[in-house]
Amino acid sequence: MTSQKPAVIVHGGAGSIKDDSLSARLDGCKAAALAAWTILEHGGSAVDAAEAAVVVLEDNPLFNAGTGSTLNRAGKVEMDAGIMDGDLLRAGAVAAMEGVKNPIKLARRVMEDGRHVILAGKGALLFAREIGFPECPPHSLIVERERKRWEDKHGTVGCVALDSTGKIAVATSTGGVFHKLPGRIGDSPIPGCGTYADDRGGASCTGMGEAIIRIVMGKTAVDFLSEGIDPAAAARKALAVLEAKTGVQAGLIMIDRKGRIGYARNTTHMPVCFIADGETIVVDS
Ligand code: ASP
Predict the structure, then answer these.
(1) CATH label of the domain that carries residue 159
(2) What domain range includes position 220?
(3) Which residues are catalytic?
(4) Atom of ligand 1 nearest to the CA of 186
(5) Residue 176 Cβ < 6 Å to ligand 1
(6) For residue range 94-110, what is the model confidence (pLDDT) as tens digits?
(7) 152 close to 15: Cβ distance less than 8 angstroms
(8) Contact between residue 98 and residue 123 where contact means Cβ atoms under 8 Å apart
(9) How far apart are CA 202 and CA 228, in angstroms?
(10) Which of 42, 87, 225, 276 is most buried, most CB within 10 Å of its CB?
């Protein structure tokens, strides 16, 4: 059954690119989108395509995912990755994960296994909560200097794919935010937050995970599709919600069930590549 024209969109993280790596990042996104497209045009599944695109980006040291991930406060790499199959609402993720080259592949295995949705590595213990220490909103502690520092360390990667059977899948992978506490888990592995797909569309988000989680940005963006608007408008609306509620910077990519593409950011950069209707577009969105 092949009636739907496939489509794919890939992002290489929202932030501000201050070095001269923008064109190399755009090339990296294009290579990833083409890896997914090769699968889709041969009738392969959206899940396989989304995973393949993210593997390419995890293996590219320019991006903050897999090889090249940013360091936490202990000077270690702890990665988050999540994948979601919009057809059956299956999801799998790994979080605060050390010692695997391609966390997205492991996330896929968690999904296929089916017993759990998210498995966290060491550091899942939230000491402060256990001892009942008073909490405050994470963004209230963020000063401009540290926000800028985070912006220099962007490069989360993500892919949304629609296959020829009309199924949508999303994969997102990240080293997280620079200097994060060991055990910190961002939005990327959490279904509905950094990664979300159902039968209406899919979204992969990038930006300050603490804010993305609080507005459930991926699901919020897909929910907007039910208003009859296209993914470009839905992405902008979700970003507006994030901005209004948290004042934080981010970006997201989307595809709906018709294969329409959308993306939005309020950061300086977000390298994107999408392929639809046989056209390959590479853009610093
Ligand atoms: N969303 C990621 C996180 O908070 C970071 C990013 O997209 O750059 O872990």
Answers:
(1) 3.60.20.30
(2) 7-284
(3) 156
(4) 9
(5) yes
(6) 899 887 788 899 889 88
(7) yes
(8) no
(9) 15
(10) 225
